[in-house]
Amino acid sequence: MALVARTAAAQTSAVTPPSALDAGHVVYPQGAHGDAAVVLDLVIGKDGRVSDVLVVDGDEPFVSAALAAARAWTFSPAHRGDVTVSARIRMRIDFHPPAPAPSPAPGATTSPSPAPRSPRLPSAATPGADEVIVRGVRTEVGQTLIAGAEVRQMPGAFGDAFRAIEALPGVTPIVSGLPFFFVRGAPPGNVGYFLDGVRVPLLYHLALGPSVVHPDLIDHVDFFPGGYPARYGRFAGGILDGETVAPAARPHAEGNVRVFDSGALAETPLLDGKMTALVAGRYSYTAALVQLIAPDTRVGYWDYQTRVSYELSPKDRVSVFWFGSFDEIDSRDRQRNVDTSGNVTETVGDFYPIFKTEFHRLDLRYDHDTPRGHLRLATTLGLEDSVAGTSTSQRTGVSSSTVGLRVEGEERLDRAMKLRYGADAVFSHYTLDTGQDPAADLRSLYPERNDVMIGAYGDVVWKASRRVETVLGARGDVFTSRLAPGSTAPVAPAPTPGTFNSSATPVSGGLTSATAALGLEPRLATRVAATRTVTWVSTFGVAHQPPSLFVPIPGLTLGRLNSGLQTALQTSQGVEIDMPLDFKLTASAFLHDYLGLTDATATCLGNGTSVANAGNDCLSEQVSGRAYGLELLVRRDLTRRLTGWVSYTLSRSTRQTHGLVLNGQVPGGAPSGVTSTGTLEEIPAEFDRTHVLNVVGALDLGRGWRAGARFFFYTGRPYSPEVQGIPVPPFNSQRLPAFYRVDVRLEKRWRAFGNGYLAFVIEGLNVTLDKEAISVQCNNDGSLVPLRYDTCGPQYIGPVTVPSIGLEGGT
Predict the structure, then answer these.
(1) CA neighbours closer than 13 Å in the CB half-sphere of residue 515
(2) For labeling, which of 63, 289, 432, 607 is most exposed (least CB within 10 Å)?
(3) What is the rounded CA–CA span in Å between residue 515 and residue 492?
């Protein structure tokens, strides 16, 4: 058998192709006859491992033998200049039947044949070279890709690819460090979370917790602030999609131990490489730490991920992906008792959940490689559950169970055009359990019901020329909702007009029967290379979503489809500029219009209620809004020796409200009340922040040491002046103080476990211990004549800081 690897004659001198380190002997298949050849396309990652294999030509059983060997090969990775890059190479494996072994002489001993030498990959200058294509992962128009290896160096992200979203333009956290984000003005409940195409109800553990997925399982994260491809739907805000690493060709393990949790991942091939099995998870021991400070409080979380895949043939694979998450905050029930004599006693009860939530997903997949594309069939089963309580006897629980079917695929129509398509159907059953008769408005918001969503999409990626790429697509979704058999939902009262939330569209009450809605969504994205270093990028899209809560909570979804869909019109124009020293500048101007938005900060705040009051009908009222601004990102790969990252957002997010005026003058006079002008006015949204800035720097100090820091800054959110505790015009005309923080990361890494590593990591979020103003406290002197504005001042929390010391290792 001979192994021949060919490389392109047309490669530029700036590119160094991969070279084989261990591309060893391929065993001639037992039972095979004659000569044969197999041609493979190998994707060589930045770590030199084979991350993907595609059969170009060949027959069985030679194809299986070549695939089994190729997945274990290792290479020195490709380089463009001094930058390590992924590459796709084409290799031809020639099979020749082994020569028959000579018969040994009588009495002679048989010595084993010498081990075959590992062939070497020829250089790009090798005569007769065929093809080497050096490439990165193709990015969609308008997409920001964050590699898992890169975000491990992001200070303040704690190695978590999903938490790194905070450092991207267009993203604003509710509170610094809290992993719930506004994306281009859309509330956190309008941002879609996906993992390998499976919708995830919650991506982060409670409070300041990490994501619900072990970071070593994530290959990269795709972030779309708007104008996303047609395969994404049913969300009116941004999209965050994590892609897991491909099945490994050799056993490996990763693990870490930190102050607040521990995690591990292990994966191994089985059955001569036809099967791979992976298990990962994380467990928090914060319960014990918190109880040292607050004995009556317990906090904990855990998550798990399991994946098993089996190769039916070189072109067919089945896999099972099972993952889930659990979070709980408990309080001890204490009762204070006073007898007739005035003696005070205390009864100490059990712990009860202030808030507990969990979800589980089981995804069964069949993947098939077609001659010019790929096809996936999948079934997803899901369970979600959340419980909140005020004592051991007073609690409310919600849950949902889902069954989903989907098909997705892509086919290359010709050298310049590719078709992507898909369809799915999701059935969801929602229940509410309070342990007692629920309040009317609570049943109106969360009735026991059955929801069905059916959708289909398609788009065409057309490379019109070497410089022009266009993605034209469309998506259609049908949403239905029906009360579960035997369930009734009372009609909730309409909101009282004349309050701060009078901008909202009054709801018609709870779901009383079956209802349906249709969402049609055209999408268009274009990328034009104006010069070798400047590219123009344009996106446009329409997105729809059923009524949603302000923040995502597993199992808790508004049952108000009868109020209508939320609609987002998303458009952006931008440029991408390749700069010296491998820096890249991306600048985008965006405009998003929101219709029928369920934003509790616009409909519940300011009228004596709060977002936490889930029984108030203001949660399902709808408003219109807009977000527009400019986003800048200057970025260099964080894995480089000296790197930098600057993201800046200049934006305005608004909501519409009916204009209100005081009957009187302030100060002076005696207003008799608040009157609506009957006209709509546009005011800053509750979480509008004009400036958001992230500056990240990292430096490889040598000898395994690496240090990094991040500076984070944003301006304060708006608030309204008050008179006698009532918000008055001009609404949201005042601003809370700005906030900044500094995050740091220091790592020392050693080689260990053969080709593995061991690292000691010190990391901290908000090491400067800065406090953040999150609301205002207003006081008045109680006088009515003359009536004066209340005196308001900021209310601070914190300092909220997260220190971390830990060990990481892997093989």
Answers:
(1) 17
(2) 289
(3) 17
Short-list 446, 429, 754, CA closest to 615 = 446
Q: How confident is residue 667, by pLDDT bands cut at 50, 70 and 90? A: very low
Map 603-664 to HEC letters: HCCCCCCCCCCCCCHHHHCEEEEEEEEEEEEEECCCCCCEEEEEEEEEEEEEEEEEEEEECC
Q: Tell me 77's DSSP state.
A: P
Alpha helices in 700-753 (DSSP H): none
**Structure-token match 């690292």, residue found:** 759
How far, in whole angstroms, is CA 255 from its chain's centroid? 22
Global pTM value: 0.78
Residue 153 DSSP one-character state: T
What is the Cα–Cα distance from 284 to 360, expressed in whole angstroms?
A: 18
Nearest to 600 by CA among 721, 685, 508, 499: 685
Strand 705-714 with 718-719, pairing: unpaired
Judge whether residue 593 has pLDDT over 60.
Answer: yes
SS (H, E, C) 121-132: CCCCCCCCCCCE
Radius of gyration of the chain (CA): 30
Q: Are 230 and 272 in contact (CB under 8 A)?
A: no
Q: How far is Cα 555 from Cα 574, in angstroms, rounded to an integer? A: 38
pLDDT tens-digit profile of 500-539? 444 455 555 677 778 999 999 999 999 999 998 999 999 9
User: Which tokens belong to 8?
Assistant: 């392109």
Model pLDDT, residue 120:
33
Residue 113 and residue 101: Cα distance in Å, rounded? 10
Distance, in Å, from the CA atom of 241 to the CA atom of 140, rounded to the nearest integer, reads: 13
Closest to 655 measured CA to CA, from 610, 603, 612, 606: 603
- Whole-number Å distance between alpha carbons of 302 and 297: 17
Which residue type does 575 have? Answer: V
- And the tokens for 789? 């504005």
As a whole number of angstroms, the distance between CA 469 and CA 139 comes to: 12
Compute the distance between CA of residue 756 and CA of residue 279 in angstroms, rounded to an integer: 19
CA torsion 63-65-70-71 (nearest 10°) is 100
What is the mean predicted confidence (pLDDT) over 60-83?
76
Sequence-separated (6 or more) residues with CB below 8 Å from residue 102: none
Tokens for 436? 């007692």
Structure tokens at 635: 């970025």
Tokens found for residue 126 = 């090798």
- Tell me: pLDDT of 212 over 50: yes
Instruction: Give the pLDDT confidence score for residue 721 in this predicted structure.
Output: 85
CA distance 409 to 422: 6
d(CA 144, CA 140): 8
Residue 729 and residue 713: Cα distance in Å, rounded?
28
438: CB partners within 8 A, 6+ apart: 396, 432
Structure tokens at 570: 């998303």
Q: Give 84's Cβ-side CA count (13 Å radius).
A: 17
Cis preceding-peptide flag for 97 (omega within 30 of 0): no
- For residue 148, what are the contacts with CB-CB under 8 A and spacing of at least 6? 161, 215, 216, 218, 219, 220, 221, 245
Write the DSSP assignment of 266-280 as a string of letters.
Answer: EEEEETTTTEEEEEE
CA distances (Å), origin 670, targets 157, 248, 733, 791: 53, 75, 23, 18
Strands (E), 602-641: 623-635
Tokens of 211: 């994501």
